[in-house]
Write the C-alpha cells for this entry.
Amino acid sequence: MPFQKNHKYRWKPEGEKALDAKPLCFKIDTELKTQLKAIPGWQNKLRDALPELVVKWSSEIGNSSSTNIP
C-alpha cells in the first residue's frame, strides 16, 4: 500500500510542536535506565523537565565564563 498524504490514521504530534525526527541518544547505567522506564509517561516527563535544566545549565555556563575574564 503506497503512502497517502493526510491519511486519517497518520501519526500526529502530541504537543504544539512536532518532535525532531532524529532522536537524541545518550548512555546511562542499567539501573538508572530500569528505574526511569518503570515510571509511567517517563518520556513526556523528561521532555518537560529538560528545558528547565537547559536554562539552568546555560546560566551556569554564562556565570562561570564571565568570572574567568581578566
Notes: The chain has a mean pLDDT of 84. The chain is about 50% helix and 0% strand. Residues 32 and 38 are 10 Å apart (CA to CA). The radius of gyration is 19 Å.
